[in-house]
Amino acid sequence: MFASGQRIIQYFETFAPKHLAMEGDKIGLQVGTLNKEVKKVMVTLDILEGVVDEAIAQGVDLIVAHHAVIFRPLKNLRTDLPAGRLYEKLIKHDIAVYIAHTNLDVAEGGINDLMAEALGLIDVDILEKWHEQKLKKIVVYVPAFHLDAVREAMAQAGAGWIGHYSHCSFVVKGTGTFVPREGTDPYIGEQGKLTQVEEVRMETIMPEEIQAKVIKAMVKAHPYEEVAYDIYPVEQAGTTWGIGRIGKLPRPMPLGDFARKVKEAFDVRGLRVVGPLDREVSRVAVLGGDGNSFVPKAVFRGADVLVTGDIYYHTAHDAMAGGLSLVDPGHNVEKVMKEGVKKILEQKIKEDKLATEVIISRVNTDPFTFL
To answer: What is residue 277's predicted lDDT score, i.e. its pLDDT?
Structure first.
């Protein structure tokens, strides 16, 4: 049995939900439909015509990419021009395209974590905080003998997580009373008679964005026709997400040696370095893509060197003035996402015992050549 397109994206968005993306970012389904069986998924950084040709040859049903295939509003769809020809191939061969951009950058285990991991950084932290999860407390009153079923349903929906602990709850015993009226079909008790039931008050915590999902799961698992529950806002924050990462090298090293380490880790032919090559570096910031606007943040956080792409001439001068070295291996290093996303999707597919295959694009989409 193969996964549907919707299920594949549900797997992905559990890891990198859309609400983590920067406002206005071009993410989500851009071409085709997810209402179909998906036998093969391809993960790629960019969607160029060569990548689409590769997908056609491989019999791909769904492409998951980092960079948008539709970035600006289309003025036309001319199939005699390169862009139109690309879209025509996707549509003719029923290949859907799903984009995950800044939500994949900031996700735990996403592009910036993969970059930090590739460089062997330790004590890794977020470079700039971006999104703080809001939490709510949910309280439900349930017959004592049905507690486990209701708690399990809520946990499966995402409630009760504190750090790496699941099923977190607090339970107090008590007595519930009610009178079933005309038109009811009570699970316990009789119409017109006061009923007393040994109940428990169970409280747990949940992220605000999954409130509706948790309530639905709770009501479905609860034995009563009418479920008594309360929801309260709480002051403490949940998970924090952000852009970029900052950490330390296991041992300090000269900038020149570190640059060679970057070159090898990201499999690039060449890179640009700003700063004295004999300067010792230890504290390293990384940010996939264009990191020009994060140079001041890296300086503020005390980084010795920032690894990022597309550095401008005057930004390099600003970094030098701030005492920050730069290593620019190019925008294409974000290709680390291919193996990372493949691993995540494969794990979910395996858990559900489905036959959908996940492959990565082998087409080199880096437009630059070093001579």
So the answer is: 97
Quote the CA–CA distance of 105 and 328 in Å, as a whole number.
Answer: 17
Q: Report d(CA 14, CA 213) in Å as an integer.
A: 13
The whole-angstrom separation of Cα 53 and Cα 19 is: 32
C-alpha span between 100 and 103 (Å, rounded): 6
3-class DSSP assignment, residue 344: helix
Contacts with 37 (C-beta within 8 Å, 6 or more apart), sequence order: 2, 3, 4, 5, 61
DSSP secondary structure of 188-251: SS-TTS-EEEEEEEEEEEEEGGGHHHHHHHHHHH-SSSS--EEEEE-SS---EEEEEEEEEEEE
CA angle 71, 76, 78 (to 5 degrees): 105
Furthest-apart CA atoms within the chain: distance in Å: 88
**Residue-level pLDDT at 191:** 87
DSSP 23-77: TT---EEEES-SSSEESEEEEES---HHHHHHHHHHT-SEEEESS-S--S--S--
What pLDDT is recorded for position 256? 98
Integer Cα distance of 369 and 352 in angstroms:
42
pLDDT digit string, tens, across residues 212-270: 999 999 999 999 989 999 999 998 877 889 999 999 999 999 999 999 999 999 999 99
Query: pLDDT for 76-90, tens place per residue?
Result: 889 999 999 999 999
User: How many Cβ atoms from other residues are within 10 Å of residue 98's Cβ?
Assistant: 22
Q: What is the mean pLDDT of residues 330-340?
A: 96
Which residues, 6+ apart, have CB-to-CB distance to 30 below 8 Å?
68, 69, 70, 97, 98, 99
- Please give the pLDDT value at position 21: 92
Average pLDDT over residues 192-217: 93
**Distance, CA of 175 to CA of 200 (rounded, Å):** 8
SS3 332: helix
The pTM of this model reads 0.84
